[in-house]
Amino acid sequence: MKPTPIPKHIIDDAIADYGIQDFAKATIREVKAVAAFAEKEAGVEFIKMEMGIPGLPAAKIGVEAQIQALRDGIANSYPDIQGYPELKKQASRFVKAFVGVDINAEGCIPVVGSMQGTFASFLLCSQADPKRDTVLFIDPGFPVQKMQLQVMGVKYETFDVYDYRGEKLVPKLESYLEKGNICAIVYSNPNNPSWICLTEDELKGIGELATRYDAIVMEDLAYFAMDFRKNLSRPFEPPFQATAARYTDNYMLLVSGSKAFSYAGERIGVVCISDKLFHRHFPALAQRYEGLPFGMVFSTRILYALSSGTSHSAQFALAAIMKAACDGTYDFRSEVAVYGQRAHRLKEIFKRHGFYVVYDKDMGEDIADGFYFTIGYPGMTSGELAHELMYYGVSAICLITTGSHQEGLRVCTSFIRDNQYQLLDDRMQIFRENNPR
């Protein structure tokens, strides 16, 4: 066997020192820590694919608006718990422009990133009806959302959508919903990590079931409009971002500033609650929160208790970004399209050296190239592959941590640099020689 770029004992000792019992279940932070230690210890550059952090500069228009707001003295003022009025207005326009759905500005509420948005939404949905105490995930998905439920002590169920696309999705969903205990249905679209994109027909089925069984759809749009197979960049013109919001009034859209606008560091996003749901009164919420409707409980009780509002200057940034996008003066999708280009090149390298794309098809069509994709290697489990690749200076997380039942890894394209394509090619050549199929 050829020597590996990273001496094996460095990886094995680091994994043991961090107390990782099963590398298949290692968290993103644990994988990152092992990679950072090994990189420093061995003096060999790692190709880091484990963390979904934007690798592009933040939207300039947002930075300038935020700086100006700070110069104007906004930092000494508490933000309104309902949000900066201009951001609420522009978020409403943004949803209309790129999703094709009407939501009143009052229902567009700034949050400290979609992470806070999901936490607050989980808390609210799980309290709305005592009989509905369980969240349903259409997996794979973002691992930390399940951690949030663990922190608050809320139950959840999950299934891997891999075998339940198209006509199979509705019966599978209904098998859970008919139990009467599901308060919310959660999924990302495009999906983290598989990058599948649920179709309008599938979302129509989700929406109709949500209405029939009175469950709330939490649509995580962290990768907003990043299905690069379609031109979703023209404001107020179809095609629009696919959504279940066209087929039910029971929905919350979580729009993040982190990926589409590369504004992750300022922790800013917007939760957009349908008009009907915003004003709906749930007896359990009314009893607990002095008669307030759903939307007001979200902002004036839960968000107020969590953070007393969202960074004031960051709200000015997101307002400016969304306004420019709606006005057609800022094409945010063209800036992030590089992720798709990176994915295309990385897939080609991996496949040439014997790897395969795990979630390779999207309703019969090749999966889109985007922020994430998934890889497997014949004869290796997720944990074995992730561990083995660390010897070659390549770090990624196992699909099992995302709720997937497939053997393989999630690859993130965000930190790939131009010099690393050849580096990866060379290392995967050695990997294949050392691990013949």
Explain what the structure shows.
- There is one protein chain.
- The chain has helices spanning 8-17, 28-42, 60-71, 85-98, 113-127, 143-152, 169-177, 200-212, 275-278, 283-288, 294-307, 312-327, 332-336, 338-352, 382-390, 420-434, and strands at residues 47-48, 108-111, 134-139, 155-160, 182-188, 216-221, 251-256, 269-273, 356-357, 361-362, 365-366, 372-376, 394-395, 397-398, 409-412.
- The chain has 437 residues and is an alpha/beta fold.
- A 7-stranded mixed β-sheet has the order 2-8-7-6-5-3-4, with helices on both faces. It has a 4-stranded antiparallel β-sheet with strand order 9-12-15-14, covered by helices on one side.
- Helix 6 links the parallel strand 3 (134-139) and strand 4.
The percent of residues in helical segments reads 40-55%
Classify the secondary structure makeup into a structural class.
alpha/beta
Poorly predicted ranges (pLDDT <50, ≥5 residues)? none
Nearest-angstrom radius of gyration?
Answer: 22 Å
Largest sheet: 7 strands, mixed
**Number of helix segments?**
16
Oligomeric assembly: single chain
The chain-level mean pLDDT equals 95
The end-to-end span amounts to 14 Å
- Silhouette: globular
Q: Name the beta content range.
A: 5-15%
Strand line-up of the largest beta sheet? 2-8-7-6-5-3-4
According to DSSP, the number of beta strands is 15
What are the main properties of this structure?
437 residues, alpha/beta, 7-stranded mixed sheet, 4-stranded antiparallel sheet, 15 strands, globular
List the helices and strands and how they pair.
Elements (H helix, E strand, L loop, with lengths): L7 H10 L10 H15 L4 E2 L11 H12 L13 H14 L9 E4 L1 H15 L6 E6 L3 H10 L2 E6 L8 H9 L4 E7 L11 H13 L3 E6 L29 E6 L12 E5 L1 H4 L4 H6 L5 H14 L4 H16 L4 H5 L1 H15 L3 E2 L3 E2 L2 E2 L5 E5 L5 H9 L3 E2 L1 E2 L10 E4 L7 H15 L3
Parallel strand pairs: 1-13, 3-4, 3-5, 5-6, 6-7
Antiparallel strand pairs: 2-8, 7-8, 9-12, 10-11, 12-15, 14-15
Helix pairs in contact: 1-2, 3-12, 4-12, 5-6, 5-11, 7-8, 14-16
